[in-house]
Every structure is written in C-alpha cells, then in structure tokens.
Amino acid sequence: MAVSMRDVDPAFQGAGQKAGLEIWRIENFNPISIPKSSYGKFFTGDSYVILKTTASKSGALRHDIHYWIGKDTSQDEAGVAAIKTVELDAALGGRAVQYREVQGHETEKFLSYFKPCIIPLEGGVASGFKHAEAEKHKTRLFVCRGKHVVHVKEVPFARSSLNHDDIFVLDTESKIFQFNGSNSSIQERAKALEVVQYIKDTYHEGKCEIAAIEDGKLMADPETGEFWGFFGGFAPLPRKAASDDAKSADPRAPKLLCVEKGQAEPVEADSFKREFLDTNKCYILDCGLEMFVWMGRNTSLDDRKSASGVADELVSGIDQLKPQIIRVIEGFETVLFKSKFDSWPQTPDVTVSEDGRGKVAALLKRQGVNVKGLLKADAVKEEPQPHIDCTGHLQVWRVNGQEKILLPASDQSKFYSGDCFIFQYSYPGEDKDDCLIGTWIGKSSVEEERASANSLASKMVESMKFLASQARIYEGNEPIQFHSILQTFIVFKGGLGDAYKTYIAEKEIPDETYSEDGVALFRIQGSGPDNMQAIQVEPVASSLNSSYCYILHNGPAVFTWSGSNTSAEDQELVERMLDLIKPNLQSKPQREGTESEQFWDLLGGKSEYPSQKISRESESDPHLFCCNFSKGNLKVTEIYNFSQDDLMTEDIFILDCYSDIFVWVGQEVDTKSRMQALTIGEKFLEHDFLLEKISRVAPIYVIMEGSEPPFFTRFFNWESAKSAMLGNSFQRKLKIVKNGGTAPVAKPKRRTTSYGGRSSSVPDKSQRSSRSMSVSPDRVRVRGRSPAFNALAATFESANARNLSTPPPVIRKLYPKSTTPDSAILASKSKAIAALTSSFEQPPSARESMIPRAVKVSPVTPKSNPDKNDKENSVSGRVESLTIEEDVKEGEAEDEEGLLIHPYERLKITSIDPVPDIDVTKRETYLSSAEFKEKFGMSKDAFYKLPKWKQNKLKMAIQLF
C-alpha cells in the first residue's frame, strides 16, 4: 500500500509509540486529541477514535483501533470517524485491527479499556449539543447487562423499565440501590456492583449508602420498601418486552462479498477458504452479529476507505441489533475471523507487512516525526524466576501400575524417561502453608501408567480437600518452578517400572535403561547449584552441543567435555553433577577441539553437532478465558484487560501463558467440575483457541481459589484478602462496596499441614540442600560428607541411600521456618543429634579439613509462646542449627545477620594466613557488612537481590580476591 503524508492526518503523527490509550474526538470533521483526564467520558452527540497500543514481551507493538459513534452523532461525523480510523492504521504501518463501536452495542474488548463501565453523557461538540453541566443531582435508572464486562444503559425512571431478567441501578441523591432480577446470575450481580461503586465514587464523591434489593423480596424489609417507594409502591413486574438487545442475530448463513469500485458483489461458494481472498482486493464477510472487512496487502488507501464505507452502508439500514464492523489487514487477521473459514494456513507470511511498516516509519522520519515506537519497543528482559519459596519439604513417588512407591531422599532427583513420577512439595505461603502436587510424565512412558499417575495425583489433591495446587508436567517441558523445587534433576534413559519393562518386551525393543557400568552421555544444564540438570542423551557425537558441558562414562572411565561456548559456571555444574552420577572417580577433562581419541571412540567417532543453545518457548503475554465445560465440549470466552476481580468463584478460568497453562477453579464450583479441571486444561491445549500452535505437552497447573501460589498471582495485582473471603461473588463484592471499595481483612491463621509436615521437613531439607558441592578449579575434587553429617543423615535415609555431596551455601530464606516436630520423631533423632554435636567437640580429620565448610544464613526465628513451645524450641532449634550453620569456632565473629565474618586480608587468595574451611566460591559472604559495602559499593541485601549472572559479572569486574 502506497502511503504519502497527505494520507496521514497531522493529528496522528507520532501516535502509537508506547503502550496505553490515545483518544481523539471528531470536531469540525477533524480528529482532536483529548486530555487523559477526559478518558472514559463520551458524549452522545460525538464520535471518537480510540487507539489501544500494547507492547508484548518481545518488544513488538500491537494496535487496536476503535471508532465510537454516539447515538446522537451526525451521519457525516460517523463517516469521518470511520475514514480517520483507516488513516490512523496507515500511519501505524497498516496492521491494526479496527472496530466500529456503536453506543449501547460496544464490544467487550472496547469496554474493558474503561472498567468498570462507561456511562455516556448527554451533549456534544460537533453535533451542536451543549455539554451537560453540573446541576442538582437527578435520580436516574440504569440497566446493567454482562457477566464479564458491564453494558450500562440509562432507561426511563419508571416501573415499566424493570424486569426479572436484568439488573438495575437506581441512583438517588442519598442512596444507590441495586435491584437484582430473579433470573439474573450471581456473576452479573457481582459485576453490576462495580458499576454501583463507580457511580458512588464519580457522582457522590464516595459518600452515600448502598442497598441491594432482591427481586421478590417482601416489603417488610426497610430498604426494599424504600426502593419501591420511588416507584409509587410495590406492584408485580411485567414480563420483559422483546427489545433490540434481546433479539438474536439474523440466522442466515454467512455471505462473502468482494468490493470493487465501491460496489459489493457476492462470492458464490458453499464454504469459505483462505484461497478465495485476493491480496489486491477488499472483501466483506457478513456473519450477522459481526461484519468483517478484509483488506488485502496490495490495496490502496482509497480502496480500503471505500470498502469501509460500503460496510457502513450495509449496517446503517439494519433496525435490529447493530452488527459490529471489524476491519482486518491481510496477515494480521483475528482468531475470530479465521474461525469463519474451513481452512486457514497455520503460518501466514507477514514479510511484506513488516517491510511496509518500515517504509511508513522511514517516510515519517523524513518529515521529522519520532518513529521509534513505530518500529519496535525494547524487549522486556526478565531473569526467569521460580516465584515459589524453595525452603519447603519435597516427597517423590515412582508410579508402578496403580500404585506409587515413595523414593528415598537420595533418589528423589533421579527420574527415568520410561516411568511416571508424582511429587508433593509443601512450602510456607504468605499466611499459611501451601502445597503443590504434580505428575512428571516421561517421554517413553506407557499411556496406562500416565493415566494412573494423573489419577493418583488427583486423588491426593481430593484427599486434601482441594487445598493443594496440581501440576501436570511432561519430560522436556519442565517449568522453572519444578527445577527450583528439585534443585538437582537427573533424567536417565529407560525405566524401572513393570509397565515399561512389559511394553519393551511385547514390542521386542532393546532395553536402554541406564546402567552405571555401560556407556552413557549426559548433557549438563541449568543456572546454578539450586537449578541444575543432567539429561541422558544418545552416546553419539551428534548429541554434543558447543553451548553445553557433558559427562561421558564407560563404567569406571569418566570424561567431562566442555563446549567452546560454555562458561566457568557451566563447568562448575559438571563437577557438582559428577558427585551424583559418578562419585569417588576422577574424570578426564576434555575441551572442544582438543579431545582424545578414546573420547571419540566411546561416541562412535566424530560427526557434526550444533552450537546453539537449546531454547524453550518463552512465556508470552497471558490471556484469560472463562470456561464452560459440558458433555465433553469446552467453550471459552476471553476476558480482556483482566484483573483479579474477573475471577468469579462460581466459574473455572484458564490463564494461557503459552509456555504454561493455569486452570483456576473457584470455591463455589461443584466437586464434579473440580475433578475435571485437568481434563479442561488438556482440552484447551487440544483446541488451541488462539491458533498459536501451543504445545500439547505444555505444563498445566490446576489452581484452587484461596490456595493460589505466587507463580500464579504474579500475573495480577493480587489482594490476598479478596481470595480469603467467604460467600459467592455477589456477597463478597457487596461487602467490599459497603467497606469503601476494599476487601475486609480477616487474616487466617497459618494452618499446620498434614501432607508431609513441616516437622519432617527439617532433616529431609538438609539432605536436599546437600545436593551440590562447592569446588575450586585449583584443587583435587573430593567427594563425600563429614562423619558428623553422615550420622545425622543416616537416621533419615534408608540404609542403602547414596551419600550426596557436601552442603553448599544456602540462599537466604524467604520466610521464617516454623517447625512442630512430632514427639515420636524426636526420640529417633536424638542419637543422630548427639553424634553430630559430639563430633564438633573433636578436632576435624584431615579429610574433613579438605572439604570447604558451608556457611548458611540463619533464618529469623518467629516469636512463639514459650510455655507452649518450650520443648519444641529446644529440640527443633538444635536441629535447625545443624542444617543452617555449622559450629561457630572460638575467635570467629558474626555480623548483624548471623553470618561468620573474617577480615578481608585473610580471605584473599594471596593471604599468608588464609581462613581455613570456607567456601572458596563464596568468599564475599564472609566480609563484614561495612567491608562488603566498601568493596562492592552496595549492601549485601542489594547484592544478593541481583540476578546471579550480574553478581558474577560484578565480582569478575572488580577482581576482589
């Protein structure tokens, strides 16, 4: 499409360069920008052009353009608004979706920009009307319709306006009444209360009473009597008359029209296909309620204006429900438009549109217009965060047929591709203990065992009265929450379960189950000691990748291979993983390009291999859908510009983040629907409603209302008080409105969980924390744990559990630890505690002195009743001290946070009197707060809030030690 500056109205130059709303009013047939303070105020005599700009995480800017036509606006003004919308699209590069909004028939997307509602004002500018001025309060009656967004319309203040199906708001001088028709839904009533709050804040300065009136309620209620008094007393309501709003769309079949030279000619076809649309022409698809104008890439601006005019003429003569006109550009069609065709290419070619956008930007730049936003905004660069407390208690089971086998702590990070696993993770939440129960599905697992794993996990959630969140995770698509919970994750080939062995026997497939004595190759990946993985891959050279490190072994022969694109941190992860895969054996390091012949022989010889890091699909901009699942059919409705208030307790919602799917289940949802939540998520992936090629194996979370984890609530401006409220949606919202717009705070007591228990989490977590090892490249790698640690661990591990590596420094806890150990468990721990404490009184052995001591942050101990918890504190405090920090030697100091500190001169590598038994990879943790700030220019808290890569970069830059 050729664009010249004469085609672009000066008022639109520089528009759409940043996220947000921009609004123009048509005055004297020209678009005039209105101030932000007037956004949401629409006059019935005017027409407006509204631009919504959205910046995605990739940095791309998306635009939606709406033109709103007031009921009293002139035909000429409405036509100007339609034409100016096409011009604005041209100024933005010709890719925006354009919507025609008629007062009273607005789209839900448009109304979502101005939540909770828009109430048009009488008057106008170009129409000749005089704007409504401030005057004495006038009693008004509004009808409210809509479950997700509210369509508000002023109706005559008369009894005849009321009916049993809708919700009405009566705005009087001293009180606002909400009348709930007997046939209206709870969700509609709750949404209408948002309109009540809006009227209260806008027209009463937040100072007036609120009353809810139920249809059919007896006159004995004072507020009910007061309400009917405004209508001359109570009398039966008439049946709702058939109005324009109630009439359904024309049932006729969709029609496709080709527009040429201002004339629309029908395209004869039994069904529509994408091939029917010519890039050099414009088309109109008339679907009754919606009328689409499709504009080919190679059409001129005049052709597009002409096609829009034809569509406006077609709907202008319709006296019934006004169809919505939606204009789309080739290559940027909406999902709704694509769904009208029997076939549509999955990957449209948008190269030409990208070029056209660049040409428009270059054209405007020559005219002195800032076009930075027309090209692309800066991508949102976010370090992936687990958004979950990682100090909780983990249990893992391997599924074997219809049963689950609990794994010892030493094996709960070892998974097999041919098996399915169930994990249960309990952790401290904001004001209560939370729990996540999930299934991990191996790529080679059999279908029967997959179904068994999901069924067993669902029964665990049900047994906990649905207080736990549930996850379904497939191998290779693990979310960061899963890796952070396990910290160390190893995937072996093959399987240990009976189902897998039976399957390969029936299919006569070779058993590839991992063997310690055979040849195996592991790809090592992750971001650090608390998030590292070893994935067994085919032992061939083509499995290598220059961006990763690998472990290769053939029985006792062990090799480590480092790609040319790896970092020192990547190589440290290899050392840590060796402690788990091949302990007590020395490896032979191999650098890319200098490999030995023996290394290549084990891989079957050299071959080509990739060099780019394997990338998992990143999280995209989330979409929220309300779900209706009936008789195996799933229907969804998208909620635009969503917030926490859109989550209604009677419904099930899906939050689609592309890489993850969250199924939110309200407390008022029936038990049968709750049990189908996972199926609903799977159906959603199957249908791919947004046509975004979403993976069928994307992680699915089932989130129960009131137990929302932080990795879900981060997508909202979350208020815990709202999710903790009781009652249905209307009852909750009524309390909020009567409380001045805020949820009444009723903080629940922290519940003591029975699913794994915080009491047993002390020893188990200490084992989990010992999964990684601090190593120095300048020393011989020594594996194993101190005798004292083994004495304690032996009490909680099975007799054949493998020793893990030395405890690493522990990240500062996000929440204080509260333990309530069982009296039966205390007796079993006493011997281990005694053995551990006695070992501290003896001088360390030579082997112990070679292993760096792990210094961990002491958590803040919560205040408790000394009379009640005396015994608990005396024992749990001793256990806690063993898992959090080792014995403080005489002469060592502690800073204000409880950390061991040493002088800087003794921490340097070149020191003549170095401090023994420290973690050499974390020397900075031993500096006092004052010295730390002097060296790093920031406090310890500020430093450790930085992403790990920034921490490492800063340490390398200043070369501190």
Explain this structure:
The longest helix is centred in the last third of the chain and has 19 residues, at 866-884. Helix 3 (186-203) runs parallel beside helix 18 (729-738) and helix 20 packs antiparallel against helix 21. The radius of gyration is 33 Å and the shape is globular. It is built from 27 helices and 34 strands. Helices cover 27% and strands 21% of the residues. The model is unreliable at 127-133, 348-357, 366-375 and 749-892 (pLDDT under 50). It is α+β, with helices and mostly antiparallel strands and 961 residues long. A ten-stranded mixed β-sheet has the order 2-1-3-4-5-15-14-13-11-12. Strands 17-16-19-20-21-32-31-30-28-29 form a ten-stranded mixed β-sheet.
Low-confidence stretches: 127-133, 348-357, 366-375, 749-892
Structural class of the helix and strand makeup?
alpha+beta
Strand order of the largest sheet: 2-1-3-4-5-15-14-13-11-12
First-residue to last-residue Cα separation: 62 Å
Question: Total helix count?
Answer: 27
Radius of gyration, Cα only, in angstroms? 33 Å
The mean pLDDT is 79
Helix content: 25-40%
Mass-distribution shape: globular
Total beta strand runs: 34
Strand content: 15-25%
**Main β sheet profile:** 10 strands, mixed
